[in-house]
Automatic annotation (TrEMBL):
Location of this chain's protein in the cell: Periplasm
Keyword Membrane assigned: no
Principal subcellular localisation of the protein: periplasm
Signal peptide: 1-22
NCBIfam families: TRAP_S1
Protein's UniProt name: TRAP-type C4-dicarboxylate transport system, substrate-binding protein
Signal among keywords: yes
Native organism taxonomy: Bacteria, Pseudomonadati, Pseudomonadota, Alphaproteobacteria, Rhodobacterales
GO cellular component terms, A-Z: periplasmic space
Organism: Lutimaribacter pacificus
Length: 332
């Protein structure tokens, strides 16, 4: 009798014990579904992870700013509106200050080098505070930005005097000021319209955005400068991660960190090069490749940029240390 009672009690406990619920996890992208990061980075990552997750658990892409505007992505993840999101750290000044070191002109040329810099800083603990609220899937960067101009080809900084340009960040606007231009904050999906209407004379961006947002139609002059790179991150809600079975956490861990950032960087760099080659072959875009003299003019215009970046950070000492480390990695 006693054994039957124990068996019945154990069965009741099993039936009433809380189970880890299977769920769909939302991955937010401010790009359209066919956009570069949506189609070439996030969706392949989702497919690789979903293939190994427990039955019923799966990530799903929500592209085109369905869940929120580009600057809101980090907050969407923190609040649990999105479980994972593509985040541009410099869209939210002050939240991810040291990640912005890659905006110092001339520091980053390729996505591979940018990913090396940010992952080195992350592995050494320099970025712990700014990503404390998130499970970090990957930190990486764009290749160096180019000037994309509507009507006026740009060769030297003086060509920008008096112009308004779409700025990628607060510090980007400060850099424009060093060249006599001014920055205007415009969300990525609205850049085409503002170029077409003449609200801005140009933008600084990379070739994948140039193709994704069809900017070749309204900004056919591309100047190849090593202006700045932009930090990027794929971040996950900590609670969503912690709620998963250990086996699923292990899958996500395997698809996070430096190796994932290096994979993203390789896709970014290959796409940047292939897009440039395709636009050059089509002959519908004018590429301006700088002479040594013109490069020297850009270097002179931004000579004070590194000091300005350090002074503009909430902790200048930490910023100076991050910049020194980034320069060391860039030179390796």
């Amino acid at each position: 009798m006693f054994n039957r009672l124990l068996t019945a009690a154990a069965t009741a406990l099993i039936l009433t014990a809380p189970a880890l619920e299977a769920r769909e996890m939302r991955v937010s992208s401010f790009e359209p579904a066919q956009g570069f990061y949506s189609s070439k980075v996030l969706q392949p990552w989702i497919e690789q992870v979903n293939a190994k997750l427990s039955e019923g658990n799966a990530f799903k892409l929500y592209p085109g700013s369905i869940l929120g505007a580009p600057p809101a992505q980090a907050e969407l993840v923190k609040a649990g509106v999105a479980d994972v999101a593509l985040v541009v750290p410099t869209y939210t000044p002050g939240l991810f200050p040291l990640s912005g070191v890659v905006e110092v002109p001339g520091l980053v040329e390729t996505g591979a080098k940018g990913a090396d810099i940010l992952n080195t800083l992350a592995e050494e603990g320099a970025l712990d505070a700014e990503y404390a609220d998130y499970k970090v899937i990957a930190v990486f960067t764009t290749p160096s930005y180019r000037f994309l101009m509507a009507d006026k080809a740009v060769h030297v900084p003086a060509d920008l005097d008096g112009l308004k340009l779409r700025s990628p960040s607060k510090f980007g606007s400060e850099l424009f000021g060093m060249a006599g231009a001014s920055g205007v904050g415009i969300p990525a999906p609205q850049v085409y319209e503002n170029l077409e209407r003449g609200v801005v004379a140009g933008a600084v961006w990379v070739m994948d955005a140039y193709r994704t947002f069809r900017l070749n139609e309204v900004a056919p002059n591309v100047t190849n400068t090593k202006f700045i790179a932009q930090p990027m991150a794929v971040l996950m809600n900590k609670g969503a991660y912690d709620s998963l079975p250990d086996a699923d956490k292990a899958v996500i861990d395997e698809m996070s960190g430096r190796a994932t950032a290096e994979w993203i960087a390789s896709v970014v760099d290959e796409t940047d090069a292939s897009n440039e080659a395709a636009f050059r072959d089509a002959g519908e875009v004018t590429f301006i490749d700088l002479t040594d003299e013109e490069k020297a003019a850009w270097d002179a215009a931004f000579a004070g940029a590194a000091d300005a970046w350090v002074k503009g950070q909430p902790d200048p000492a930490a910023a100076a240390a991050a910049l020194d480390r980034a320069r060391a990695v860039a030179g390796e």
